[in-house]
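Subject: Protein record for review, amino acid sequence with backbone structure tokens
Concerning: The relation between a protein's sequence and the shape of its backbone.
How to read it: Take the token row as a discrete description of the fold.
Enclosed: The protein record, placed directly beneath this head.
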Amino acid sequence: MIIDGYNVIYAWGIDTSNLEDARKELLDALDDYAGFTGEPILVVFDGYRTNNAGSDMRFGLVDVIFTARGVTADTYIQRLARSSPQPVTVVTGDFLEQLSVFGSGSLRLTPAELKLLICQAREKHLALIHRSTLSGKELKQKLYLDAISNN
């Protein structure tokens, strides 16, 4: 999964008065999601208007790229999607980027859809934790009800 970092931050309404804190909030949520799902995640942040040469780092389970000066996150993501030997999922709310992603044969998720996936993964994880804290008769009843509902 490739994520347009600032696009998601703004779409989710994360407070951007301190961009470092905003990035950390997003990366914390994505790190949890990667832990729940095992899905590889790459977040691309736009360095287009900076004087930086670009950089990459690891935040928990999430790979992070800061593009170099003059390179937009959109351009970087589109190149990755086009060069990937298999379809990738790109998370962006940018309509032109979505069209480019579709054109490369990849998939797209909107920031809202990603947020929903993260919430679903958290709920599933919490249910597993709850199940593991049950004992004896409670656990047997829960497993029985799960088995019935899955049939």
